[in-house]
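Input.
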Amino acid sequence: MEKGSIVLFWITFLLYATAFIFYVAYFNSRKSKVGNLATLTIACGWLAHTLSLVLRGIGSEHIPGSTAYESLSLIAWFVILGYLMVEQTSKLKVLGIFITPMSSIFLLRSWFYYQPPGPRLGVLRSALTDAHFLLMYVTFAAFTVAAGSSILYLLQEWQVKKRKQTLLLKRLPSLGALEDTTHRAIIIGFLFFTIVVVIGAVQAQALWGTYFDAIFVSSMLTWLVYGSYLISRFFIGWRGRKGAFLAIIGYLLLLSIRFIVVPYISYFHGFRG
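Output.
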């Protein structure tokens, strides 16, 4: 089972990387056939990814997500799923240029933590932990979409200010469409992230005897950044560049939690990843 899972893992990576090439080609050509090929490739990659995770689950006899390898792979899986939903509803196909390399990075990073399948650690065997992981993956997907659309927004705004009919200006979506995508994604991500922070505090108290561990503190800081985005937009009317910068800062903080804080805490408490 695990050999099949690994083969599918690398097929997934190749398909995501190939999809990135197709999305770039679509951006340059605007040919619908190329765009459809990009969508088909990323969808096939997601299906291969799904099968890889299923085989991994069968081999370990539990739902994947309890190891760093599985966790980062699942983040990539949810990011692609979230993007496919956005592409079908908002038609922001150009966002694939950001999403596909980010998912590929998550996959590559997960491989550094690879471990053969095995039973879960005792501290991770609970429904609350499963809920925490699941909601965190959804949060990552939403905030990744928000970061991607925010980067495209800043790029498009820069082109608009140049007041020239450049290729980027013609190819990128409108500022309104990008801003709306960022806003909707952050609303969804913020709701799930709020629950994640609460569950994380409960788990920290149960496991370590305190609410205020490094993960909780950094999560609260990230939560405040995204909360500031929503409050400033609703009460102060912040839109455009300021909101885009907040979305990007929040995402960088989120990445620092997963790639810096969580590995440190895991190592400190004798876990891997």
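The radius of gyration is 19 Å.
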